[in-house]
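User: My collaborator sent over this chain with a note saying "see what the structure looks like." That's all I know about it. Can you take a look?
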Amino acid sequence: MESVPASFQSPAWSPDGSRIALARESANKNQIIVTDAAGENPEAIGTFANKTAFAWSPDSARIAYLDGIQALDAGTFGPLHVFDMATSKEVVVDENIVAFFWSPSAEEIAYFILLQANADSSGAGDPNAQPQFALGLHVLDVATGESRELFTYRPSDQFLNILPYFDQYHQSATIWSPDNNNLVLSFLDGQGNPGIAIVAASGQLEPRLLAEGYLAFWSWK
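Assistant: Without extra context I'll predict from the sequence alone. Here is the result:
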């Protein structure tokens, strides 16, 4: 298949090896397409404004992607779309999302919204200080389209730096526990000390400090 590539970060094989996702320009539109394993029989599943990143569900039944409204030096941000390959139904989360990770069960997606955090709660901080960022962690139920907010926190620089490349990390690393019940986060406390915390995906328990550290992922088993 010959096409003009659009702005996307990385092609992605479906976990079952039967399909490839990539992006192309067609009729003045940026399209996300899925082909067979030979790169033939392209099927357009969606469009995006500027730049995209995508990841397959572990069962290869759905693909999620960002409709990147702005291309950054690294990564993008925009609404999250989840496309069902069998039914063509789509769930959309209309937020400025910078990264997401599928749960092992393929039933939920943890996603991150980038927020600017004011280190001085009075708002009277140094105007020349470098901006600090916080992440809002949410979990989407892909069957119902409903999201729940879990935690807003200041991430470690190491974790913040991998988010622009989440689609590539997604193929080899996960923040989800194998039983789908918990997520592992890397954060900074109010004094700037790094820590690793476990957060219940249900949102019904307070985050639990596990250890000091800058970056953590979960084993697959």
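A starting point for your reply to your collaborator: Helices lie at 157-162, 166-169.
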